[in-house]
Design brief:
- The protein contains twelve helices and 18 strands.
- By secondary structure, the chain is α+β, with helices and mostly antiparallel strands.
- It folds into three domains: about 170 residues, Nucleotidyltransferase, domain 5 (2-Layer Sandwich); about 100 residues, ATPase, nucleotide binding domain (Nucleotidyltransferase, domain 5), CATH 3.30.420.40; about 110 residues, no CATH class.
- The longest helix has 25 residues.
- The termini are close together.
Length: about 425
């Protein structure tokens, strides 16, 4: 019996479920773990390519090269048909996505001992907000890349619906459930009727009452926290000569993962140098230039992401920036994190409510809210959505694997 694959290609993390017949299971992708950070490191010193945690580790160890993360965010972006300079060579962004999908496919095939030609790929409700043409182009591009790496029979399923299928396997009665799937790049919502009597159906379109989504999620939280915590220590928001604020654009790019590398180009570095006269406190400019010259932007981004998680779990943490300047630290607590992400949390919560309203229902009609995706661990977000749906049962799914499991459930039916 032919084996099939289900791939959750996530902005921050990815997972793969393989199945044969009615059976499916998550596979270990790295060091026995079933999730793999969506990261690729082109190691110039070793002339090699690393993926996942190994990619991040090699980058942090100081090897020369180029680290790429948040690859999924390229789908639907204007960069999708562009190239980027990697170790002196122009490489198409689509080729970088293809290399990551090839790694997932090859890893899965090593564990199935047979080639995989059939796959279900997860996709967000919207790759691009408010632009159906670019959204369709994003899926078409992902399908073409999947075909180029060797998949032949390719299906798609919305990620929140996949998460719903995983949750449905636990239900003993029918329920009206709002699936809240918030990852690194998008916040997606599906309102769906679930229950044992419905679980065997392949076509669930009649059970899906509404879909909604917004292109705001974990990477936005990271950027906002960086702007609120680390970037002021490099000069953001401080008064310049004559009381005028220091130009802010460079800090916004330094806080945005996929734009950081552009700041290291000779022209960008030269432009950053010309900002020195704006600074009343020249030490702040020296800090900024040290970060740029030493290519520490992604290191800072990683520390900010870790701080977000630490504050969500423990309420407070301290970022050690001594690699920028001796004894430089930044304290982050719940109040600072909550304030930084407040506007985004409000937009996400409003989208969740609008999704329910699109079905002609109210929050009071919802039996359960099912949370999945790594960013649902953000305390402020859970509290906001919980308050909006105060009469509903809050269910915490597997933050990182619910979508992959649900895609696996769908794949067993789609390829039966």
């Amino acid at each position: 019996m032919n084996t099939h694959a289900a791939i959750d290609f996530g902005t921050s993390n990815s997972a793969v479920c393989i199945g044969s017949g009615a059976q499916h299971r998550l596979i270990a992708l790295e060091d026995g773990r079933t999730t793999l950070p969506t990261a690729v490191f082109f190691n110039a010193d070793e002339n090699s390519i690393a993926f996942g945690r190994q990619a991040i580790a090699e980058y942090q160890a100081g090897y020369g090269g180029r680290l790429m993360r948040s690859l999924k965010s390229l789908l639907g972006s204007e960069l999708l048909n562009e190239t980027t300079l990697i170790n002196g060579k122009a490489v198409a962004y689509q080729s970088i996505i293809a290399s990551f999908l090839t790694h997932l496919k090859t890893t899965a095939e090593l564990q199935t001992d047979q080639p995989l030609s059939r796959v279900v790929l997860g996709r967000p409700v919207y790759f691009v907000d408010g632009n159906p043409e670019r959204d369709a182009l994003a899926q078409d591009t992902l399908e073409r890349i999947a075909r180029d790496v060797g998949f032949e029979d390719i299906r798609f399923q919305y990620e929140p619906i996949a998460a719903a299928l995983d949750y449905e396997s636990q239900l003993t009665r029918e329920a009206l459930v709002l699936v809240v799937d918030i990852g690194g790049g998008t916040s997606d919502f599906s309102l769906i009727r679930l229950g044992p009597a419905r679980a065997s159906k392949l076509d669930r379109s009649a059970d899906v009452l509404a879909n909604g989504g917004v292109h705001i999620a974990g990477t936005d939280f990271d950027r906002q926290l960086s702007l609120a915590s680390v970037m002021p220590s490099l000069g953001l928001g401080t008064a310049g000569i004559g009381g005028k604020p220091i130009p802010a654009y460079i800090y916004f790019e330094l806080a945005t993962w996929h734009k950081i590398n552009f700041l290291y180009a000779p022209r960008a570095l030269a432009e950053a140098e010309t900002l020195q006269p704006f600074y009343l406190d020249r030490a702040l400019h020296r800090r900024l230039m040290k970060v740029l010259r030493n290519r520490e932007g992604h290191r800072i981004a990683g520390l900010v992401e870790a701080a977000k998680v630490a504050v969500s779990e423990n309420g407070t943490t301290t970022l050690d920036l001594s690699f920028v300047e001796d004894t430089l630290t930044v304290a982050v607590d719940t109040a600072k994190l909550d304030l930084a992400v407040q506007a985004s949390v409000e937009k996400i919560t409003a989208t969740a409510l609008a999704t329910v309203q699109d079905a002609g229902l109210t929050a009071a009609d919802i039996d359960a809210v099912y949370f999945t995706g790594g960013s649902t661990q953000l305390r402020a977000l859970r509290h906001a959505i919980g308050a909006a749906f105060s009469n509903s049962e809050a269910i915490a799914g597997d933050a990182f694997a619910s979508v992959a499991r649900g895609l696996g459930v769908y794949a067993t039916r789609a390829f039966a």
